[in-house]
Amino acid sequence: MKTVHVAAAIIRKDNKILAAQRGYGEFKDGWEFPGGKLESGETGAQACIREIDEELHVAIGDLEYLCTVEHDYESFHLSMECFTCKISSGTINDSEHENLCWLESDQLWDVDWLPADIQVVKELEKAFGH
Ligand SMILES: Nc1nc2c([nH]c(=O)n2[C@H]2C[C@H](O)[C@@H](COP(=O)(O)OP(=O)(O)OP(=O)(O)O)O2)c(=O)[nH]1
């Protein structure tokens, strides 16, 4: 099965994290962390910074590796590196998602996450002691 390498940004603000609802494609309407596929030669962190600039038009910093999720979808295997981070400059101007939502720590399960993201949210709960 084909492996797709993705980097995802868990953007933190105060006690909240940013969730995004996909606006197109196979997983339309599912909730995820902003990010996208690694380009050749890129590290996960580099892809994360580039994707967030392209999608949300902000710069991110303070990246901290959280986990890598391995998930088998029907038609591909996803290997997704996840980083927590903060916005270091700019104001979000979303060019790609249907919705964005800042979730408080007690709202993490209020959205319908993509299957692979369930594990990420569990890791987040562990990391932040919820
Ligand atoms: N960005 C992102 N993708 C995720 C998450 N969870 C998850 O299963 N995925 C899957 C959905 C997609 O199949 C793949 C990421 O593709 P993408 O469409 O965001 O990447 P991209 O912008 O580089 O790609 P493209 O649309 O230009 O082809 O990973 C997540 O939390 N964030």
Provide a short characterization of the protein structure.
With 130 residues, this protein is an alpha+beta fold.
Provide structural commentary.
It comes from Thermophilibacter gallinarum. There is one protein chain. The termini are far apart. It is built from two helices and seven strands. It has a single domain, classed as Nucleoside Triphosphate Pyrophosphohydrolase. Helix content is 18%, strand content 42%. Strands 1, 2, 3, 4, 5, 6 and 7 form a seven-stranded mixed beta sheet that branches. The longest helix is centred in the middle third of the chain and has 13 residues. The chain is globular and about 40 Å long. The protein has 130 residues and is of the alpha+beta class. Bound molecules: 8-OXO-2'-deoxyguanosine-5'-triphosphate.
Give every kind of bound small molecule, once each: 8-OXO-2'-deoxyguanosine-5'-triphosphate
CATH superfamily: Nucleoside Triphosphate Pyrophosphohydrolase
Q: What structural class results from the helix and strand content?
A: alpha+beta
| Percent range of helical residues | 10-25%
Summary keywords:
130 residues, alpha+beta, Nucleoside Triphosphate Pyrophosphohydrolase, 7-stranded mixed beta sheet, 2 helices, 7 strands, globular, binds 8-OXO-2'-deoxyguanosine-5'-triphosphate, NUDIX_hydrolase-like_dom_sf
